[in-house]
Amino acid sequence: xxxxxxxxxxxxxxxxxxxxxxxxxxxxxxxxxxxxxxxxxxxxxxxxxxxxxxxxxxxxxxxxxxxxxxxxxxxxxxxxxxxxxxxxxxxxxxxxxxxxxxxxxxxxxxxxxxxxxxxxxxxxxxxxxxxxxxxxxxxxxxxxxxxxxxxxxxxxxxxxxxxxxxxxxxxxxxxxxxxxxxxxxxxxxxxxxxxxxxxx
Length: 200
Description:
Layout: H1 8-61, E1 78-90, E2 93-105, H2 116-199
Antiparallel strand pairs: 1-2
C-alpha cells in the first residue's frame, strides 16, 4: 500500500475516490451478470450448431464410400459466394453474429455425373455452413469469456482492494487529524494556563 499524506486535502481525495468506486461497482456487477447470461446463450448456440454439424457428418458416413469415384470435380461441387457476418455489441463487447452464407453450384452435365453428386453438394454446403456457424459461435464465446474475466477482475479489485483501501485510508487520516486537533486544543489550554500564571 502506498503511503498517504495525512492532510485534509488527502482525506477529501480519498472520500471522492471511495464515492466513485461505490458508484461504478454496481455497474460492473450488472455487466458481469449480463456477460454470464450472454455466455450461457452463446454456449447453447454453439452446442446446437456442433450437434447439427455432427449429425450431418454421421449422415455422410452412410454413403461416404461413393466419394472415391472420380467425377471430375477437382475444385469442388460449389463455391462460397457470399458470407454475411455482422458485428453486434453485448455489454460493450464487439461480437460476431452469423447472418448467412450463399453458395453457387459448379455447373456440370447432369448426364455425365453420378446421381449422388446433387445430394453430396447440398449436404456439403450444409456442412460448410455449420462449420462456419460453429467457428463464429466459438469466437463469440471466446470474446465474451475474456470480457467476463476482465470484468470479474475489476469487480474483485473494487470490492476487495480499492474500497477497503480507501476506507482504511479515510480512517487513518481521520484519526490523525482528530489527534492533531486534540493536541492543538491541549496545547492551547496549556498556553492559556501559562499565560494566566505569568499574569498573576
